[in-house]
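user: can you give me the structure for this one chain? tokens are fine.
assistant: on it. calling the predictor now.
[tool input]
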Amino acid sequence: MSLAQRPVRTVYTRNFVVICSLLTSIMISCEESGPPKLVIASAANVQFVMDEIVSEFTQRTGINCDVIISSSGKLTAQIIEGAPFDVFISADLAYPQKIADADLAVKDPVVYAHGKLVLWSMRDDVKLILKDLGRSSTRYIALANPEVAPYGRAAKEVLEYYTLYDDVQKKLVYGESIAQVNQFVISEAVDAGFTAKSVVLSPQLKGQGIWMDIDPEAYNSIEQGFIILSNSHLPNEAKSFEEFFAFGACCPYLRRLWLRINLFKKLNKSALIGLATDYIDFPTGRHHHCHPFFSVHTDCILVGKYQK
């Protein structure tokens, strides 16, 4: 059976999911020892800045944390099965909303950013033209499993939007998350792969290979959500991380990934203007001032209207 023809199967049992989450997920630790750690379940699209984010958070608060990286869908299944996470950072709002609807969260999720999809290749002989994906010269195309990974679902929507899905279906290689898709692309096991723009512009991978933006009209908006879990063993620390992550303090790290940041929409607009340094007020386009901690160099891009 060829690589492209391997079926995608997702099997969950209570013990299997929890054990695998602890044994196979990528662990990023801000501290090796000390008091109990805040456990953060995070989607793979922000993998390359999470170590910096938690390091900054620990430095400012003294709260130690561990980050578990996987697909949003798989993390959701683990949470439903009782995995001992404190907060969940998802690449798709639907997954944390599902958790909230199941009364497993302290409140509804916060939308902190909107993701962008790209097509990426490490091969010199590949021309990144969507219509060429159906040609015989393109053998394998990687995307994350659409059933559990938001960027995989978006990639499938793109192929259907351009009526390419039937032509390339036999060439598709599915990763568990975009983290595995990235491995396929970097190792040149595939000709090209659909991944997050945050990946190709990360400090670790910027300048490697070639990539192209995908027209956002070709896929549904990838709203990315943050939620605190009701079974958190460190609820106060989880709240502190929410304030740090979802309401602006890690804006410099997320902007570096070219995420469309969705900050402050629950805060008072006049209070923002009373802070310092520039920000751009969408949708009006007017310049105002905000605290320099929320900015990189000159501006912090905000999305969404503010409540008065």
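assistant: here you go. The mean pLDDT is 76. The chain has three domains: 14-115+221-260, 116-218, 269-308.
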